[in-house]
From TrEMBL, chain B:
<protein>
    <submittedName>
        <fullName>ABC transporter ATP-binding protein</fullName>
    </submittedName>
</protein>
<dbReference type="GO" id="GO:0005886">
    <property type="term" value="C:plasma membrane"/>
</dbReference>
<dbReference type="InterPro" id="IPR003439">
    <property type="entry name" value="ABC_transporter-like_ATP-bd"/>
</dbReference>
<feature type="domain" description="ABC transporter">
    <location>
        <begin position="10"/>
        <end position="249"/>
    </location>
</feature>
<dbReference type="GO" id="GO:0016887">
    <property type="term" value="F:ATP hydrolysis activity"/>
</dbReference>
<keyword id="KW-0547">Nucleotide-binding</keyword>
<dbReference type="GO" id="GO:0005524">
    <property type="term" value="F:ATP binding"/>
</dbReference>
<dbReference type="InterPro" id="IPR051120">
    <property type="entry name" value="ABC_AA/LPS_Transport"/>
</dbReference>
<keyword id="KW-0067">ATP-binding</keyword>
<dbReference type="InterPro" id="IPR027417">
    <property type="entry name" value="P-loop_NTPase"/>
</dbReference>
<dbReference type="Pfam" id="PF00005">
    <property type="entry name" value="ABC_tran"/>
</dbReference>
<dbReference type="InterPro" id="IPR003593">
    <property type="entry name" value="AAA+_ATPase"/>
</dbReference>
<keyword id="KW-0813">Transport</keyword>
Length: 340, 251
């Protein structure tokens, strides 16, 4: 195997960034929108590297936080497009008399954006504190997060008149006064997504290299040793999990803007597992790997499911088995193995 | 008399640890004065490791108290006990395998262990000296940057001893520190413990009688969770009861 020259490895992120910057000029509106969706997913994947790779916390419930972010922004867009005093269409069809009280503040864009960022973060922090404080971890934690994803999706489906139920929320026209149909808005949202992706990458690079990252890995490898060196591992794990949820919430909000829809089908158990697979494919210890994994798996998904819609779930299962058995450190592990 | 009380560092007072009917410790008591060296021996299952577990807060006694510097600590969270100045080396080396040797020590040497103080990079200068000194003490300076998981077994034991020392704990619990070491490494470990000075109090659990002899410290013998005998190594060796306990189990 030829060695990967250092200059190529160093230069690769810059090359990718240059390609990403060139994309709005080179790609059609449809393809650019697709790429932007995948980049939003990559933001979530970065969070999983911190949570799962460095923290050793397997979350099968990232869809919940993705959904909280997505619904927050979707609720605002439903309200923003309405003439004053009217209710969103689906509420009228379900026979509701008035807007639910908890919908009202989402009429404010500032509130909705703050909620898309803060609600997932706070929910995750409270949830993680309650669980880690009781010293529940490992497989049990993964199962609880999966149950959370199931419960969240079920709740949304069951409250048809307030959440749009199984169909979710869709038919948005504008955000902050920019028409979503305009190609210029699409390009603007693409740049926003790219900027947040880069910021998340740089921020997590710093965090994982900091003493915080060191302690997080220490708690992953020897929770007792860390405890008996005088540290409580709980806050490190809670903060990591909350940051993962923060990024998932932002990803959900951006995805909803790009896709023009948010629905239970995007946030339940199966999508939550898919999110873990992106990161497993890319390499769960590698931030760059997670971005590549999220983009590659979603591209493949798009290609496979447009040709053979029934086949994707089988492909995903096979992919997961392949990665777990043959390349436990994902694509990043292959590259490193070759370079070494 | 009052001077003796002032020197008292640790008192384990009538502690019972009950594992659903099985008493790993049964009304056990022990006191340590500042600067003491003490060895605890006893056949397998005598409750030696449970004693360490109880002092450090890993198991909670159903009866009795653990008093450190005049304060009851048996109900405190582990990290609060460590913060008061007790640190333990585990039986199986408890180093953090993916962290470098230096980072292992840096975590141990850290003064402020609140999480938001970890939002920074590198080892603060004030702690770097302590880390370098700890590396020097256990002879791992040349291997400071390798992952701790790649060290040889004896080196891992020393690294963990160095970590425990780097916390600046006043009371140090060493649970079988020489397990898996050869004779040369064992006597280096004994020298290290001798070199610690009067501001450290050390409680050692070990099976290796040659190591216990090299330590030359008073010996407490445990049996079935209870106190059996205390004295110099020679006195304990000559004791018929102690011999019976060991032979009974060795046979």
């Amino acid at each position: 195997m030829p060695e990967v020259p250092a200059i190529l490895r160093r230069g690769l992120p810059w090359l990718l960034l240059a390609l990403a910057a060139a994309a709005p000029a080179a790609l059609s509106g449809y393809d650019l929108n697709l790429l932007a969706r995948f980049m939003a997913m990559a933001i979530l994947a970065l969070g999983l590297v911190l949570v799962w790779g460095h923290g050793g916390i397997l979350s099968l419930g990232q869809g919940v936080f993705f959904g909280l972010g997505g619904y927050a922004i979707a609720m605002h867009m439903k309200l923003a497009d309405l003439p004053a005093g009217e209710m969103p269409d689906f509420m009228v069809w379900s026979g509701r008399e008035a807007l639910p009280l908890w919908w009202a503040p989402f009429g404010s864009a500032t509130f909705a954006i703050a909620a898309a960022i803060l609600v997932p973060t706070l929910v995750a922090a409270l949830f993680a504190w309650a669980v880690f404080h009781r010293r529940v971890g490992g497989t049990y934690f993964a199962l609880i997060t999966q149950a959370l994803a199931l419960a969240f999706a079920t709740l949304i489906i069951s409250q048809q008149d307030a959440t749009g139920g199984f169909n979710g929320l869709t038919d948005f026209y504008s955000i902050l006064g920019f028409g979503l149909a305009s190609p210029r808005t699409g390009v603007g949202l693409y740049w926003l997504t790219l900027a947040i992706l880069c910021a998340a990458f740089v921020g997590l690079r710093w965090l994982t290299a900091s003493r915080f990252g060191m302690l997080l890995r220490a708690a992953r490898d020897g929770e007792n040793r860390v405890r008996f060196l005088g540290y409580s591992p709980v806050p490190f794990k809670v903060v990591a999990f909350a940051i993962g949820a923060l990024l998932a919430g932002i990803a959900g909000a951006l995805f909803t803007l790009h896709a023009g829809v948010v629905s239970p089908a995007l946030i339940g158990v199966v999508p939550s597992i898919e999110m873990v697979i992106w990161v497993a494919v890319g390499g769960r210890y590698s931030l760059a790997g997670a971005i590549v994994g999220a983009l590659a798996v979603n591209l493949a998904r798009d290609a496979v499911s447009s040709a053979f819609p029934e086949l994707w779930l089988y492909c995903m299962g096979a992919l997961f088995i392949l990665v777990v058995t043959l390349m436990p450190n994902g694509l990043a592990g292959l590259l490193k193995g070759r370079a070494a | 008399m009052s001077e003796a009380v002032a020197d008292l560092l640790l008192a384990v007072d009538g502690v019972t640890v009950d594992y659903s009917g099985f008493k790993a410790l049964d009304g056990f008591s022990l006191t340590l004065n500042r600067g003491d060296r003490r060895v605890v021996i006893g056949p397998n299952g005598a409750g030696k490791s449970t004693l360490c577990d109880t002092i450090i807060g890993r198991v909670r006694p159903s009866e009795g108290r653990v008093i450190f510097r005049g304060e009851e600590i048996q109900a405190l969270p582990e990290q609060a006990i460590v913060a008061r100045g007790i640190c333990r080396k585990f039986q199986a080396p408890g180093v953090l395998p993916t962290l470098s040797v230096r980072d292992n020590l840096a975590l141990a040497a850290r003064r402020d262990r609140r999480w938001w103080k970890a939002l920074g990079t590198g080892i603060p200068p004030a702690e770097r000296a302590a880390v370098d000194e700890a590396l020097e003490t256990v002879g791992l300076t040349a291997r400071a940057d390798v992952p701790a998981g790649t060290l040889a077994h004896g080196e891992k034991q020393w690294l963990e001893i160095a970590m425990v020392l780097a916390t600046r704990a006043e009371l140090i619990l060493l649970d079988e520190p020489t397990a898996g070491m050869g004779p040369a490494e064992t006597s280096r470990t004994a020298d290290l413990i001798h070199s610690l000075g009067p501001h450290r109090t050390v409680l050692v659990i070990d099976h290796d009688m040659s190591f216990v002899e090299q330590l030359g410290a008073p010996v407490t013998v445990m049996h079935q969770g209870r106190f059996l005998k205390q004295g110099s190594i020679a006195e304990v060796r000559a004791d018929a009861q102690v011999a019976a306990v060991y032979l009974g189990h060795a046979a």
